[in-house]
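Local shape tokens

___
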Amino acid sequence: MIKRTLTLLLFFTLTASLMAQEDDGTLNKTGDKAPDFRATTIDGQVIDTKDLKGKVIWVNFFATWCPPCKKELPVLQENVYKRYKDNKDFVLVVLGREHNAEELKEFAAKWEYDLPFAPDIERKIFSQYAKQSIPRNVIIDKKGNISLQSIGYTEEEFAGIEEHVAGLLK
């Protein structure tokens, strides 16, 4: 029984390791200094990561047409934004890849989101972090380093990101 358990554990560890290595679309590694960027949300708030040292930053890249993004955004709003929006040590920015402010305003109104959406029309911010794949989440720690990255959406993985962020905010 122990041998079988160890074999399964080794298999899953190797599979996860290989999957992480195969993602050549991610341009930064966990532990790297996060690339700085400046974005303006659809309500006019300027988010400049150079000014946010000492805060945990959750960067979410999405597109309005992306099915997994559409599953993730309500969870991001309910479980993360509503929980932390008044926390002075936390910043969330939801970047609409290849979307302008008007498209994001319409999308937010249609789905009744109050998330801090910001346009990334030409992928200028996205291209500092990745070549492809959304939804994509990047968690930046209080020192300005990438603490966690994820691609795609599953409830289990998202719950893990939430736990990770809660730990960083303690």
